[in-house]
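Dear colleagues,

I hope this message finds you well. In preparation for our joint manuscript, I am sending the Gap junction protein (Sitta europaea) sequence together with its predicted structure, so that both groups work from identical material. I would be grateful if you could confirm receipt.
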Amino acid sequence: MSWAFLRDLLSGVNKYSTGTGRIWVAVVFMFRLLVYVVAAENIWKHEHDEFECNIKQPGCENVCFDHFFPVSHIRLWALQLIMVSTPSLLVVFHVAYRENREKHHNQKLYKNTGKIDGGLLCTYLISLILKTGLEVAFLVLFYKLYNGFKIPRLVKCDIKPCPNTVDCYISKPTEKMIFLYFLVATSCLCIILNISELSYLIFKYSIKCYLKRHMKKQQ
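The corresponding structure tokens are as follows:
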């Protein structure tokens, strides 16, 4: 799978981000995207082939695998990466709208089309709220789908067409567990960064509005 589009998106967003936003981009690119491409994808590459049950009943192994892994960890992680990065497109589109508006009117309408103020500030705040919401939603989804953030070595399955309760073994559980914890940790770090940036921007804007009103009263 090519991740060039996501890399380009993150590079574009980095130009319009605050300091905390740039840290978020670095975390997503270095500790999530690169880890996924270089290491994690290979660990889950043959998870179905390496899932073994102590019975050769036709269909039993497939049904048990589907029950315990309704969605592959790695595919869900890939979907999470795409979804949490997508709201940043709102900021890129808004800046492009400002630039096109200036070209259409053939005059300078903004001091800096990429400066986070006015309508662009609202768009930026919305993108932060969406990213935070999606991060939390995916963490909850991971927890619900797999009954917690753990990967057992052995699972017991009694779903038809299995004739009785069979033991099924998951390959490389320790290695997968480490990457799963890393996934959760980086998601939590991104949530903290998003909330920090959101709080900073709201506080900064509130102070700016207060100072404006104070200056007007003095005049």
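For the figure legend, we might mention the following. The chain has one domain: 17-218. The helical segments are 4-14, 19-43, 60-68, 73-85, 88-105, 118-146, 173-218.

With kind regards,
E.M.
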